[in-house]
Design the sequence.
């Protein structure tokens, strides 16, 4: 170590970095970390596409939902996989990451710097948005090119798609951070988080359709959680209009979907703001 | 820098208390650390020194007492205060997939007045590891990166919690030089350490903490008071080890020679011991043999 000739530590009143610049630093850190963990990014980016392809080969046939109208299995299965992918890229990734970063002292290290928790969280949001968009593009490309899925043409449906994606990711990301506070260790999180996601997937009508034919208890529970509404919203975009008869109340309930997702976002944000800690419980 | 006018306080602690369940980790601790000094905090494991330092760093909430660091209560501190302190924490297990340079560069952007990244990397001798992933660093290299992260924000007060654990003796000496040069540049250093030679080499003043209280506070050469530094004459009398503290060991030995010397003119087991800092320290914490 050579002698460090520091400028005297009298403060010159350098301006504080803005939230935007700290957020962009955190975004770059998050992306680099994500891309350097190959197991993670291959899994996260490919998961919904992988499930979509497998189920198509196993179940692939046409579906009519009791109407005169017929659609390919891929067309019917796609919305659930989009919702699953969004949950995977946001909730699962973020909950596991935050618990790990807390356990290994990454957050503790950040907590003694002037970095604001908001910039840390926004960096995660940026990473989630980026990975989710890549994941969606891969899934939609495979669905269209290999499984003859047709995409909607109406601009209003794409607009709905856009807010549904953003709102779903917002709920998943903030929910993941809030959920991380419940996990005592990375080991527990790695076991528990995917289990929670899997149970939600099964009861929310992501794999088995139509939702209305699921056991009623499962429906009641699923109605409380966001995934059921994310999947419903996606069905309202990618399913033929005729299939609305398969839904509860024969309605897409788009307004209710938006309200429920916003309520979840606000609740998760409130919990996060009240409970988010840089440090683990073991640190006191 | 003992010549620094000791007027302005960097750290002030009055009646600090912190309990974990039934254990009173910090029990009415008082401490003043002046601007510009290197202050060492010593004490056995569990004495409350880490808890105290973590309260000063704003990492722990205290039960009672008054604490200010740079004039601000760390419990209510904001980012402006955090930008003025640097922290090198004790345990670092970060498994980041970032490189050393990326990690330090990112951290620099959180501060209003960061130091030059390259210069800091050179200062901690990590030039060759600048592009290596953090997760692959050795213990000593990781510790040096911790130090780099602690100083990159150009702090006014730097907390070093057992910073040289796992260092080679040579790297340790180099690190001491770095700490001195930071201090020369005006940075107040608060050092907790297990190594008495480190405290002796670096500290202007040191405090010994035991059972959550300061039991001694002085310069390294005056720690424990004159009594603790008085030479000890040891000898064996009728097969029993005897010892006596005296400022006049020669006179005592002359007297002993007259009364206790054997046929060969020697006193059995005669020995003059000048208590080392370590002896004084062990005395203070009640662990003397």
Sequence:
């Amino acid at each position: 170590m050579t002698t460090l000739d520091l400028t005297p530590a009298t403060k010159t009143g350098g301006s504080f970095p803005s939230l935007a610049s700290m957020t962009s630093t955190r975004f770059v850190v998050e992306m680099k970390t994500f891309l350097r963990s190959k197991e993670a990014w291959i899994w996260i980016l490919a998961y919904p596409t992988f499930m979509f392809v497998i189920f198509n080969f196993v179940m692939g046939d046409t579906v009519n939902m009791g109407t005169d109208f017929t659609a390919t299995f891929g067309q019917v299965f796609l919305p659930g996989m989009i919702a699953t992918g969004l949950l995977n890229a946001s909730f699962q990734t973020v909950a596991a990451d935050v618990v790990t970063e807390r356990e290994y002292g990454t957050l503790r290290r950040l907590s003694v710097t002037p970095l604001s928790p908001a910039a840390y969280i926004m960096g995660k949001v940026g990473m989630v948005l980026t990975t989710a968009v890549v994941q969606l593009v891969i899934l939609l490309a495979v669905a269209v090119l290999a499984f003859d899925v047709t995409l909607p043409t109406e601009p209003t449906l794409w607009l709905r798609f856009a807010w549904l994606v953003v709102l779903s990711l917002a709920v998943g990301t903030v929910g993941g951070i809030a959920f991380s506070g419940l996990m005592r260790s990375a080991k527990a999180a790695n076991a528990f988080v995917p289990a929670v996601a899997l149970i939600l997937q099964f009861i929310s009508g992501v794999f088995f359709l139509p939702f209305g034919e699921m056991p009623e208890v499962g429906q009641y529970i699923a109605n409380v959680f966001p995934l059921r509404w994310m999947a419903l919203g996606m069905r309202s975009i990618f399913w033929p209009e005729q299939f609305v008869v398969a839904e509860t109340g024969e309605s897409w309930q788009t307004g209710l979907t938006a309200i429920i997702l916003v309520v979840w976002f606000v609740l998760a944000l409130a919990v996060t703001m009240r409970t988010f800690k840089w440090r683990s419980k073991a640190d006191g | 820098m003992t010549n620094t006018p000791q007027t302005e306080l960097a750290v002030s602690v009055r009646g600090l208390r912190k309990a974990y369940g039934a254990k009173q980790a910090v029990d009415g601790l008082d401490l003043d650390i002046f601007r510009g000094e290197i202050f060492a905090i010593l004490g056995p494991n569990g004495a409350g020194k880490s808890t105290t330092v973590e309260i000063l760093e704003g990492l722990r909430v205290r039960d009672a007492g008054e604490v200010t660091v740079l004039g601000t209560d760390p419990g209510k501190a904001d980012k402006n205060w955090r930008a003025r302190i640097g922290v090198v924490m004790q345990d670092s297990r970060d498994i980041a997939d970032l490189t050393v340079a990326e990690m330090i560069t990112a951290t620099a952007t959180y501060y209003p007045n960061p130091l030059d990244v390259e210069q800091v990397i050179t200062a901690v001798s990590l030039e060759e590891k600048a592009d290596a992933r953090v997760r692959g660093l050795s213990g000593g290299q990781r510790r040096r990166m911790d130090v780099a992260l602690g100083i990159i924000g150009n702090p006014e007060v730097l907390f070093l919690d057992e910073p040289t654990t796992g260092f080679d003796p040579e790297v340790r000496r180099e690190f001491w030089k770095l700490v001195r040069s930071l201090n020369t540049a005006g940075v107040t250093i608060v050092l907790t350490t297990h190594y008495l030679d480190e405290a002796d080499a670096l500290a202007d003043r040191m405090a010994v903490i035991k059972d959550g209280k300061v039991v001694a506070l002085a310069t390294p050469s005056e720690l424990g008071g004159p009594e603790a530094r008085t030479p000890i004459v040891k000898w064996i009398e009728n097969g029993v080890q005897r010892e006596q503290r005296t400022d006049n060991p020669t006179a005592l030995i002359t007297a002993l020679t007259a009364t206790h010397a054997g046929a060969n003119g020697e006193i059995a087991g005669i020995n003059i011991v000048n208590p080392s800092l370590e002896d004084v320290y062990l005395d203070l914490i009640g662990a003397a043999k």
About this structure: Residues 73-103 of chain A form the longest helix (31 residues). The longest strand of chain A covers residues 62-63. The CA atoms of residues 68 and 242 of chain A lie 9 Å apart.
